[in-house]
Each structure stands twice: as C-alpha cells, then as structure tokens.
UniProtKB/TrEMBL annotation, chain A:
Cellular component, GO annotation: membrane
Bilayer-spanning residue ranges: 29-52, 176-199, 219-241, 253-277, 289-311, 340-359
ABC transmembrane type-2 domain ranges (all copies): 127-365
Protein name: ABC transporter permease
Matching PROSITE patterns: ABC_TM2
Keywords annotated in UniProt: Membrane, Transmembrane, Transmembrane helix
InterPro entries recorded: ABC-2_transporter, ABC2_TM, ABC2_TM_bact-type
Coiled coil: none
Location within or outside the cell: Membrane
GO molecular function: ABC-type transporter activity
Automatic annotation (TrEMBL), chain B:
Pfam families: ABC_tran
Record protein name field: ABC transporter ATP-binding protein
Molecular function in Gene Ontology: ATP binding; ATP hydrolysis activity
Keywords assigned by UniProt, alphabetized: ATP-binding, Cell membrane, Membrane, Nodulation, Nucleotide-binding, Translocase, Transport
Length: 365, 254
C-alpha cells in the first residue's frame, strides 16, 4: 500500500485496456483498415481510366509566337506550364507530374520551325495523346503553305526514362491520410464521449489515476493502432499493387512519422468533437463536418490541381491536404522529412490551433 | 467499547447554483461498521457520498477520511477507499479479468484477476463482458473492483436497486463478509428492510438535512416507546419470506 504510486504504470494500464478495446471494436477496424483497402482495391483496378489533361512544360527558350505554339494553346486537353525552372521541369518529367517538355525553335531556312519534344516513360499513355495532337497541328500547318514541298515545321522527339507513376502511388497516400483522419477524429470523439456518458471516467477518478494519464494512455493506444494500420496499408500496397517506396524501409519509416504527426493533429479534432457533442448520436454529424470536406477537397481521390481556381485556396487550407502531399512526396519522390518541412509546419500549426480549442471545449463529465 | 471514527463530516454544504442539495450536515462513520445513508430519491445521499469520495467539490464544510483531510489529501484518500457508483459503466469491449487488470493498474498494484473474481463468486465469468452479466452479477463485479486496492472503506451507492430477492440476500452476505474482514462499508439505499438487517447504524437524509443517526434497533425502540403501533396486526411472515421459502435462498444465475 505504501509503495510509490506510479502514474506511468497507470498510463500503461489504460493504454493496454484501450488498445484491446479498439482492436475489438468493429468500427475502428473498418475505418482504419477496411475502408482504405476497399478504396485502394477499387481504384487499383479501375486505374488508367479517364485522362484529364496532358501537362506540357514549355521550355524558356521556346518561341511563343510561332503558329505551332499558338495552335497547341488551343488544344483543350493540353495544359501548358510556364512557371517552372528547367531543373524543376526535368525532375517533374521524370516523376511524371508533367508529361512532356516542348521547345519550339524558329529556323532561318526550311523547315522554319522545329518542335523539340521530350517525353518521359513516366507519362505513359499521355505521350501518344500529345503526339497525335501535334501531328494534327503539323499536318494543318504544312498543308496550308501553298508552294512548298519543303515542310515548314518538323518534330524532333526524345524520350527520357522516368519512374512510372501508378494509380496506387496517388491513391494509397490519400487513403492512408484519410484513414488517419477518420480514426483520429471519430475514434477519439467516440471513446471520450462514451467514457464520459457511461461514467467510466468518473469511476476512474475515484482511483488515484491522474487526468493526463487517462488522455495519454488513450492517445498511446489510438496512435499505436493507427500506425499499425498505416504499416499494414503500406505493405499491402507495396506487395499487392506495386506501391512505389523509393528508399524502401527508410521511406516507410518517414511515412509512419508523418502519419504520427497527422494522427496526433486529427485527434485534436476528436477531442473538440467529444466536448461539443451531447450524446453519441450527435458525434457523426459533427465529425463528418470535419472529415467529409477534407475527404473531398484534400486530394484524397483527385489531385487538387484539377479543382476550379476558387476552390483551391480552401483545399490548401486543410491539414489533410498537407499530410497527403507530404506522404506522396516521401513515397514517390523519395523526399526526406526536411524536404516536406513546409507541409509538416502547416500540420503543426493546425495542431497548435486545434489543441488550443480542445483545451477550452473538452469536458470530463 | 469506544468506537473510533473513520469518517468525520462537519457542516457539509453543497449548492448547485441556487439549489441547496446538502444543507450543512454532520455525521461520523465508525471503523468496521456498515453505515447506511437512507432517504428518498433526491435527498442528497449520492451528492454527500460523492463529495466524501473526492468526486465532487463541496461548497463548504470539513471532511476527514481515515485521518486525511479531503481538501489537502484527496490523493491519499483515493488510495484508501473503494467506490461503487450508481449506474457506472465499465470500459467497453473488455472482459472481467481485463477490467480487474485495468483497475489494478489504475491503483498501481498487482492483483490476480481470478483471486478478485473469486471473492465475489464470478470466476466462471472471467472471460465474460460486463454487459453480458445479470443485474446481481454486475453489482458483485462492481464490488470486486472496489476491493482491488484493499481499501479501508468501501462506498456502495444503491447496490441492490433492481435486484431480485435472492440476488439481494446474496449481496447482503457479501457486504457483511467485507465488513467482517475489517473494511468499513458506507451504503445508500431506499429499502428500509435492507437497512434494518444489514446496517449497524443508519442516518436518515431528507431534503439535504440529516434528521437522525442511530442504530436501526434504537430507532425502532424509540418509535415504539413513543406509543407507535402498526395499524394492522403484524403478520408472522411477509410475502418476501414466502417467496424465499418457495424459491429457495440459493442465488441463481439469471
């Protein structure tokens, strides 16, 4: 009886109990593992459908006044990109985030225009789309010059080797991010609300346990579960769908660290929801108000670049956007955590804000 | 025999806004007794109990539990008491053994779950979930969780409400056993028959005041001495006696 009371042991006891409870709760397993896997499965199999646009980098030395360029501008599926440095363009071409680089030169003798096109193996089908668009343009230009057998324009093509950007490489980080959001918000909100309503917390307060032990114990359990789920999703992605992990285990570790930051921030939302909600049936509507917009707008299914311009600032305000972005950069581009420090910083700012709100709204009883 | 007091309550007041739930009550609980707080719903029993259990702030008054002041030593008190709350739930998705393990951790001690469950005759339910238990089993399990830290005092808030006669008698036996092992028991109930057979002393609480503290026998003797008579001649047995006689005393798995 007189031995020193250990808050550490009490915290671990709660963590253990909570982890057991989470693993046995169908909803947390469904949210953390089943949903993401179903989405990955669905999108993994319907991959490749629906090319939205061909992104073409325009080299700085490109002559923009020539008719080939003017005609290309009118092709609706071709999106011309000017605002990248040559180095960025090369690296993006390798990664497949842009599909080709075009550099049209004006010549003093025929052919008067030479279109140098650089493709990447990473661009896949889009190479052919761009090629046929250019062929149409050239055919028209060459045909409209009255006297000339010598063609006025020619195409010179090269293809660089790039990493193939698969659908899974886009879908998996998005699903992982969303799974972390769901488990962070819904899981935390439900558990603290139900512990409060069923007086489990009150019963805890009749023991010497400290309040912070309860919060930390619950957090340890939820974070462990979320990270195990994340690892599981990454490994299934890797071995079943060929998900790209540039630096192998190091990349996995970096992804798990990002997941940790993400789930901690998202749990902050969960604490707020548990404080606001009056009973268990008001949790889903409030939690959905937090998760659904991020589900749709944070680049879970589509790159936020395809959203209309007015929507993009909203997307860029959401924490999940940054988690998804960082996860993709780390997994596919092999970025280090330093390279995604901007994304991490935005998430941390969200963390500070949401925990400030959580401290004010959280209720113990 | 001089009784040593283990809980002292002096002028305890609890206000909820304008509502005075407890209006300056004082009483003592002696070491090793079963002490009953009796009174109708809303009399302030639970509020009083929860203040002593360190779960609620008091408005004013002085309370000492096993020598510790509630204002300065709530932590020491928590280690020395066992608390059963009215209608408290338990951590979801865990079985009884795991719940005992959890509570042992909360008290920072090692207890064998089976040993604890044995005390309340629930070893065969070790792998069952709390919500799968019958009413009587739930109460016995709750009592098991109050005994984990070998408390000096256990508080039981309406432990027999909603139980059938057999389960009730079974629980009385358990409570007496706890007292006989040297633990003081504070219990609330609104069943007077229960208080009469179970409690060593009782306090009547009504409207936030204590209107009397004594042994059940003394209360009855005083009332009879004042000339009170039951309106009808007392039957030699009650219907409950008939029920127990016909269905047996054995507590059964519901």
């Amino acid at each position: 009886m007189n031995q020193e009371y250990s808050n550490f042991k009490a915290t671990l006891a709660i963590a253990k109990a909570s982890f057991r409870s989470i693993v046995r709760s169908p909803s947390s397993v469904v949210f953390t593992l089943l949903f993401p896997l179903i989405f990955i499965l669905v999108f993994g199999f319907i991959s490749g459908g629906g090319v939205i646009s061909v992104d073409v980098g325009v080299a700085k030395t490109n002559d923009t006044l020539n008719p080939v360029y003017q005609a290309l501008k009118k092709v609706s599926i071709v999106k011309l990109i000017h605002d990248q440095t040559p180095e960025q363009m090369q690296s993006n071409l390798q990664k497949g985030t842009i599909d080709a680089i075009i550099n049209i030169q004006k010549n003093t003798v025929a052919p008067y225009f030479t279109a140098n096109i650089e493709y990447s193996k990473a661009s896949g089908e889009k190479e052919n789309i761009l090629r046929s668009a250019l062929n149409n343009i050239f055919y028209e230009i060459n045909a409209h010059i009255p006297n000339g057998p010598p063609p006025v324009a020619e195409i010179k093509e090269t293809t660089i080797s790039g990493r193939e950007y698969k659908t899974i490489d886009f879908i998996l980080p998005g699903q992982l991010g969303f799974a972390l959001l769901s488990t962070g918000v819904f899981g935390t909100a439900f558990v603290f609300l139900s512990l409060r309503i069923t007086l489990v917390i009150k019963r805890f307060f009749a023991t010497p346990v400290k309040r912070y032990s309860i919060v930390i114990g619950e957090a340890i359990a939820r974070i462990s579960f979320a990270l195990i789920g994340a690892l599981f999703i990454i490994l299934i992605g890797k071995f079943a769908f060929g998900f790209t992990l540039v630096h192998g285990a190091v990349t996995v570790l970096n992804m798990l660290l990002l997941s940790l930051i993400g789930v901690v921030v998202f749990m902050g939302f969960g604490f707020v929801v548990s404080g606001i909600a009056k009973n268990e049936s008001t949790v889903p509507p409030i939690a959905n108000m937090i998760t659904l917009p991020q589900f749709l707008l944070s680049g879970t299914f589509f790159s936020i670049n395809v959203f209309p311009a007015w929507l993009q600032p909203i997307s860029r305000a959401l924490p999940l956007t940054y988690l998804n972005d960082a996860l993709r950069k780390v997994a596919f581009e092999g970025a280090s955590l330093m390279d995604v420090s901007h994304q991490v910083l935005v998430m941390l700012i969200w963390g500070v804000v949401i925990y400030t709100v959580a401290v004010k709204t959280f209720k113990w009883e | 025999m001089a009784k040593k007091s283990i809980i002292t309550v002096k002028n305890l007041v609890k206000n909820y806004g304008d509502f005075n739930a407890v209006k300056g009550i004082s009483f003592e609980v002696y070491e090793g007794e079963i002490f009953g707080l009796l009174g109708p719903n809303g009399a302030g029993k639970t509020t009083t109990l929860e203040i002593i259990e360190t779960l609620r702030e008091k408005t004013s008054g002085e309370i000492t539990v096993d020598g510790f002041n509630i204002d300065t030593d709530a932590g020491s008190i928590k280690k020395r008491i066992g608390v059963q709350l009215q209608a408290a739930g338990y951590y979801p998705n865990l079985n009884l053994s795991e719940l005992i393990e959890l509570f042992s951790g909360l008290y920072g001690i090692q207890r064998s779950p089976l040993e604890m469950l044995k005390k309340v005759a629930l070893t065969d339910k070790a792998k069952a979930k709390y919500k799968e238990l019958s009413g009587g089993q739930k109460q016995r399990f709750s009592i098991a969780t109050t005994l984990i830290n070998n408390p000096r005092i256990v508080f039981l808030d309406e432990p027999t409400t909603g139980l059938d006669p057999q389960a009730r008698r079974n629980l009385w036996d358990l409570i007496r056993e706890i007292r006989d092992q040297g633990t003081t028991v504070v219990i609330t109930t609104h069943y007077m028959d229960e208080a009469e057979v179970l409690c060593d002393r009782v306090a009547f609480v009504d409207g936030g005041n204590i209107i009397g503290v004594d042994t059940p026998d003394n209360f009855i003797d005083k009332l009879v001495a004042s000339g009170f008579e039951r309106p009808k001649e007392v039957k030699l047995a009650s219907l409950e006696d008939v029920f127990i006689n016909m269905t047996g005393k054995e507590w059964r798995a519901e």
